[in-house]
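Thread: "does anyone have the structure for this chain?"

Original post by V.I.:
We have the sequence but no experimental structure in hand. Need at least a predicted one for the grant figures.
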Amino acid sequence: MDEELLREHLGNAAAAYAQLRVVAQTGSTNADLLAQADAPDRSVLIARHQTAGRGRLDRHWEGVPDKQIAVSVLYKPGIKLVDRLGLLPLAVGVAVTDVVPQAGLKWPNDALIEGKKICGILVEAADLDSAPRVVVGCGLNLSLSKEELPVAHATSLMLEGIDHDPARVAAALLEALENRVQQWYQGAPELLRDYRSRCTTLGQAVCVERWGEHIEGRAVDISPTGALLVETAEGRQEFSAGDVTHLRPAT
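Reply from O.Q.:
Generated one for you, tokens below.
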């Protein structure tokens, strides 16, 4: 895949983005975009191979060349939307499930097919108190074989029998991101509605790890700011961050 082929698949949707770049390899597409203070709003960087990818909670991973794809987009939302940033990772998750409807979302934004991770999402920000810059990044497993999967609880589009052509997938993801991020900008109620309908965490018994604590309860809702609401023995608690595990029922 190159920029010309990507633009061909995007068609008129390419106009939504100020800059489209495709590279063979980089350390981290998110880091590259954040380092470019003068990059225009809606700049896109796609890599066919990442050597220093990062996930939530600063987990590091290295991709397999040409069998995964890293897509990052830079947004400059302005100061007024900073208090709404908690919803942006959820919007990105919904966009991924628009492209891969077989996937559900484990809060906040792990895209899973029958419990196996198909896509990782990381949203990072800089200069929030002056001129906010936010980068959303998606690392999607395209054609990894079982032997190439980074962990046993991962999968790929190829293994699931889903179209894994890099240019088609990247173009579809960019179109979906434009739609869902626009909903985020506008505060559209259907964004949270669609997230709730695709969130496999809701209704589950969960354990939330936060600040060294482990809190168990039942996930009951998503707040208007994107936080997870959990009914615990001590009452309802709200989590804007944390690592969630779905607990298996006792047998």
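V.I.: this helps a lot. The CA atoms of residues 99 and 173 lie 6 Å apart.
O.Q.: and Helices lie at 3-10, 29-34, 88-99, 166-186, 189-198.
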